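Pipeline run #58 for the internal structure catalog. This entry was flagged by the ingest filter as a single-chain record with no existing model, so it goes straight to prediction. Upstream metadata was stripped on purpose; only the residue string is passed forward. Reviewer on rotation: M.T. Logging verbosity set to normal.
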Amino acid sequence: MSDIDPQLLLGHRSGLPEDLRYLLERYPRDQWQAHENLGGMAQFWLQRHDMFRELGGMLTQSVSDYREGQLEAQPFASFFVPRLQFFLQQLHGHHQIEDMHYFPVFTRAESGLMRGFDLLDNDHHVIHDALERNAHGANGFLGKLGEGRDAARYAADAYAKDTEDLVAMLLRHLEDEEDLIVPVILDRGEAKLGLM
């Protein structure tokens, strides 16, 4: 995606550029839940996004609790490992569905937003790479749990930064994705888009 403005890359942008917000201005967030065109697919999709936000917060908080001595190694690992695995697997599958099914539908429906969908597609690649780094970092960190508190604490500090960065990127992406997609759904309706 070399034609994307570097300022719009995930990790650099603070939101969608003005030229991609024209439908959002017509359908602001505070109107979404009451809109008649917010159907079952959109509601499910938004719930999945909320789940990713919640899981990201739980993972970040659990690492913080471990670092601050509020969780010992074994209870931390028992809590953290299954949630991280679920988070990574579900996010990967979610992005595949968006890339293969939803983005093409929305791009055909609203060609003026094509650059936005290219941006979101690029985000998925960035997030995928970050997920792989995070999984690798988690394995290294978890491997240090049995080597004593000092070694584990050092590994936890390094891993915490990676997790915070990943979650921050994900939060930015989810918000931008919603700001691009939900207004298209509200404008056209799920049936007309072929999403039902």
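catalog note: The chain is about 75% helix and 0% strand.
catalog note: The mean pLDDT is 93.
status: ready for reviewer M.T.
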